[in-house]
Design a protein that fits this description.
2 copies of one chain form a homodimer. Chain A contains 5 helices and 2 strands. By secondary structure, the first copy, chain A, is mainly alpha-helical. Chain A has a two-stranded antiparallel ribbon. The interface of A and B includes residues 85, 89 and 114 of A. Chain A binds a DNA duplex through helix 3.
DNA sequence: ACCGCTGTATTAGGCAACTAATACAATAGC
DNA sequence: GCTATTGTATTAGTTGCCTAATACAGCGGT
């Protein structure tokens, strides 16, 4: 994983989000085993405790399972994962559109900008 | 203004963003006069110092002008305002699309979701 | 000239959150 | 049974933000 952490937001929150995305997108498939807390922490250049906090949060959300002295695994519950994916997509969309509305940009403007942006990437 | 402040991010930053949006969208037109620091602070239930910090930041960005003993005004520079609007729209779009990409949702999926969302609002 | 209003500066204190260091607990595997 | 490796708990320290109190400076209106 390429941890791209900035200091303008809580580290643990960024890690949570990062891993959530990897699970939601399927990059981390159901049942995938995680490295140990210490290993992950070292990899991300972060205190083990910080990593632990992130992982606990993910467990609280039901995305991770823990076998106490064995390690952690992505949940096998594919429905939960799909729910997560939908939820994240939906909130992204509505947040984005709300922002555009506040900027006074209507539906046509939004679609325009998006198509523009995709064309830029097709180079 | 309806200050809708949450505690999960610095207050002053939220205020900055709020006012930026009002300026970018034209809700606060060029040359519009601001209430005094103390008045705004009271209105937003915030310490004057916090409000001042936000306003200073906006001034640093060139969006506000100060007439020392008279008050503050939105800049008259319409080009600067338009630049702000473009900049905010652009960063919103690219951030949104990056998120969708990470979720594994392609162009068609994005357009689909957006149209869905707009239909929902047309009730 | 004075009073009231504007913005500005300074200092201090407290609170909450994040990070860190270290010690503890439990089990798998040899 | 011992050791290594896992997750967990506890305590401590640092930082950033917000608040507060107070003082200063300059202009307008009466």
């Amino acid at each position: 994983m390429s941890w791209n952490l900035s200091s303008d937001r809580p580290i643990f929150a960024q890690i949570v989000e990062h891993i959530e995305l990897d699970i939601a997108s399927g990059k981390l498939p159901p049942g995938a085993k995680f490295p140990s807390v210490r290993e992950l922490a070292s990899e991300a250049s972060v205190n083990p405790n910080t990593m632990q906090r992130a992982l606990s949060e993910l467990e609280r959300k039901g995305l991770l399972r823990t076998d106490r002295t064995v390690g952690r695994f992505v949940t096998y519950d594919k429905r939960e994962i799909e729910r997560l994916r939908k939820e994240k997509a939906s909130s992204s969309v509505s947040g984005f559109l709300m922002q555009m509305k506040k900027l006074g940009i209507d539906k046509d403007g939004v679609l325009e900008l998006i198509k523009e942006n995709y064309q830029k990437e097709e180079t």
